[in-house]
From TrEMBL:
It holds the Pfam family F-box-like. Residues 17-64 form the F-box domain. InterPro entries: F-box-like_dom_sf, F-box_dom. The lineage of its organism: Eukaryota, Fungi, Dikarya, Ascomycota, Pezizomycotina. It comes from the Eukaryota. This is F-box domain-containing protein.
Length: 261
């Protein structure tokens, strides 16, 4: 791990004041631990030292696997990139391969002919000219290499169930074998039929994948989703990828717990 920067300063109005990177590592870790997943993504790009801390300090890694019994079915150990709160992972696909991955706002309601898609710009040259507010390009993020399910035992989260339902849920989670997972990830696939007017067709609205092993990386889960989405697009006779340059969008919509354990 990099040594903490102890002498960095900034000049303001003729005075020298300590830079945040000159603070002790313990304080920097405390600051980073309060960041959302998107702020952590930004922090990785701001400082190589912060990136090192975020990847190597156990408590910071653990913060990306939230566990709260009162947030069922979310926040039960799924990686924050997949956990689908206000943000979802979107896979921009061209010629059958993922070209960009975004952590970006949910689409509500699902776009239809009367509801232009606010992500339509991803299919245009505008995508090459910068990002929109709330869209985080995570294509090269090291977080994608982390496991999709928490590598930490549920006992280590110091959980305190407050109801019978939460007690049953905790017992179920504690009874899982090491490395096993319990999520079904739902996803939608959008093909732009009229880019100029912001109209997309959505297909395979009932598609999902069973996350059998939490030891798979987030990136490997994305490839599994792409494989299913690709098959659905190829089976959809009315889809003409020629009108959009062979591009479509796959969005992880939400997770739910498997009905059989």
């Amino acid at each position: 791990m990099e040594e903490p920067l102890k002498t960095s300063t900034q000049e303001t109005s003729g005075r020298s004041k300590p830079h945040i990177l000159s603070l002790p590592n313990e304080i920097q870790v405390q600051i980073l631990s309060n960041l959302s997943i998107n702020d952590q993504l930004n922090a990785c790009g701001v400082s190589s030292h912060w990136k090192c801390l975020l990847l190597e300090i156990e408590s910071l890694t653990k913060s990306r696997y939230p566990v709260r019994l009162d947030m069922y079915p979310e926040d039960l150990g799924l990686h924050a990139l997949l956990n689908c709160g206000e943000y979802t992972l979107k896979l921009l696909v061209k010629d059958g391969a993922i070209i960009r991955i975004y952590h970006s706002p949910n689409i509500h309601p699902i776009p239809d002919s009367e509801t232009p898609a606010d992500f339509i710009w991803l299919f245009t040259e505008e995508r090459e000219n910068g990002m929109r507010e709330g869209y985080f390009d995570v294509t090269d993020s090291p977080f994608l290499n982390e496991t999709s399910g928490t590598p930490f035992s549920y006992d280590s989260y110091d959980l305190n169930p407050k109801s019978e339902e939460e007690k049953v849920l905790l017992e179920m989670m504690q009874g899982l074998d090491d490395g096993s997972a319990y999520y079904v990830l739902k996803f939608l696939t959008f093909v732009p039929s009229d880019v100029e007017n912001g109209i997309v067709d959505d297909i395979d609205t009932d598609e999902d994948i069973h996350l059998e092993f939490g030891t798979l990386s987030v990136k490997e889960v994305m490839e599994l989703i792409l494989k299913k989405a690709k098959e659905a697009v190829e089976d959809e006779a009315e889809v003409d990828l020629g009108v959009c340059g062979g591009m479509y969008l796959v969005e992880v919509v939400f997770p739910e717990l498997r009905s059989v354990y």
